[in-house]
Amino acid sequence: VDETLAGIDKIDPDVAAFLAINADGAKKQAAAVDAAGIDADQPLSGVPIAIKDNIVTKGVVTTAASKILANFNPIYNATVVEKLAAAGAINVGKTNLDEFAMGSSTENSAFKTTKNAWDYTRVPGGSSGGSAAAVAAGEVVAALGSDTGGSIRQPAAFNGIVGFKPTYGRVSRWGLIAFSSSLDQIGTLTRNVKDAAQVLNVIAGHDERDSTTADTPVPDYTEKIGQAIKGMKIALPKEYLGKGVDPAVADKIKAAANQLEDLGATVTEVSLPHTQYAVPAYYIIASSEASSNLQRFDGIRYGFRAKDVHNIEDVYVRSRSEGFGPEVKRRIMLGTFSLSAGFYDAYFKKAGQVRTLITRDFEAVFNDYDLIIGPTTPTVAFKIGEKVTDPVTMYMNDILTIPVNLAGLPAASVPAGFVDGMPVGLQLIGKPFAESTIFQVAAAFE
Ligand code: GLN
User: Fold this and answer.
1) In the predicted model, is pLDDT for residue 40 greater than 80?
2) Helix 2-15 crosses helix 23-36 at what angle (to 10 degrees)?
3) Would you report the helix, strand and coil content of the chain in percent, each value rounded to 5?
């Protein structure tokens, strides 16, 4: 822990991955591990882990990278934080993100701009950009992130590490500051596949405080690592190598497919015909749920309150106007519009129908195949500032990750070579609760 904290002191002034360092708390936790000795029942005993700052940590300021939560000091821990502590892991600090996890580059943080660990002029991706850069820069071995439309997998791809988003309902969201409750899922950012499996072993499982968690038993996710993938049937959707995907990135994915075939798997081209509708449907659903979830930030219950307010309406309007950043406001307006009486059928309801079609596309492929592969992102990491004034171009960066959230499926991004000196991510998508199959194939590829 001392070495980790020293490393962060040295590296983080350049990378800017952390919003808060939990130095005293981490040292206390480490002293307790030292006193008790390594415990076989504590699989992460003494392992320093960073936590995305939209996951609440008791006594450690949790901001979701928003001014409206600056100085918010939670009085409880998220379930995942409790589980990590019970497993002996050390919470070394809170990582930067796009405000309320809305974004793909971490440039929407109200506090700082995190750099890509490979090139400080490029974005780390987002919204879990702080967690990804911290792991890739060697500041920590593992970090938690959240993935609503790609926020674990995309920054993992951009930083050349492993990002894992479990099945919706596999990990408790209790204590995750809600963005879009039907899409949000907590997962891991690690340097390799086995570390991801070991952290997921700890954080997965039913939680009576989150009624959307599944009762399905948690297997040992390391179990299939090392098993041969001979005979495995893998699908490669043609839409994932089509328009908008950089041909150099597509080549890396084809090379990965060849590698899997060399290992005895078959890789077959398939179609997910509704892929093109995923981004518009997602932005209606996610923004609608966000507009509802973010009502609680009213200037009274948490964090920031505008100064010199004159009446209750003034408290709400001014606190929210001054506390939320531009992207959050854009989504609240879009979501409120989509949910309003005259437009509900045309937008929110329609988006829900499209979501069903996208889910069925996946189900049809999974009738015949064990796993789907494709690129995680259409391009490698872009330059800081490049897309920040063009929200739609920014949104399109998530075209390959968003369908997975709409269908609630588990998926990972693993490193698959470089284009222009920047890492490329291979995405592996599994059937619901088939995390073990993803780990098996990802490890074989590693
Ligand atoms: N980039 C997507 C968005 O802005 C996804 C974010 C996420 O997964 N949290 O909504």
Assistant:
1) no
2) 150
3) 40, 15, 45
pLDDT category at 302 given cuts 50, 70, 90 is confident
CA of 215 relative to ligand 1 center, distance in Å? 27
Residue 349 — φ and ψ, nearest 5°? -65, -45
The DSSP element (H or E) to which 144 belongs, if any, is: strand 142-146
| pLDDT for res 396 | 86
pLDDT digits (tens, 9 = 90+) for 122-157: 999 999 999 999 999 999 999 999 999 999 999 999
Interatomic CA distance for residues 147 and 351, integer angstroms: 19
User: 317-339 b/e with 16+ CB inside 10 Å = b?
Assistant: ebbbeebbbebbeebbebbbbbb
pTM for the full model? 0.98
Q: Which residue out of 151, 182, 328 has the highest number of ligand 1 atoms within 8 Å of its CB and is therefore the one to mutate?
A: 151
Q: Which residue has the tokens 């891991």?
A: 188
* Residue 151: active-site member: yes
Q: What is the pLDDT of residue 38?
A: 74
What would the pLDDT profile of 80-131 be if each residue is shown by its tens digit?
999 999 999 999 999 999 999 999 999 999 999 999 999 999 999 999 999 9
Q: Give the per-residue SS3 of 317-379.
A: HHHHHHHCCHHHHHHHHHHHHHHCCCCCHHHHHHHHHHHHHHHHHHHHHHCCCCEEEEECCCC
Strands 162-165, 142-146: pairing is unpaired
Q: Which of 104, 109, 127, 146 is catalytic?
A: 127
Ligand 1 atom nearest to CA at 402: 5
Cβ-contact 152, 192 below 8 angstroms: no
User: 145 near 189, Cβ under 8 Å?
Assistant: yes
Give me the residues paired with residue 49 across strands.
Answer: 91, 142
Residue 340 structure tokens: 């309003």
Q: Show the tokens assigned to 41.
A: 């029942």
Please say if 319 is a catalytic residue.
no
Residue linked to tokens 């882990």: 49
Of the candidates 208, 211, 209, 170, the one whose C-alpha atom is nearest the C-alpha of residue 187 is: 170
- What's the pLDDT tens digit per position in 336-353? 999 998 999 999 999 999
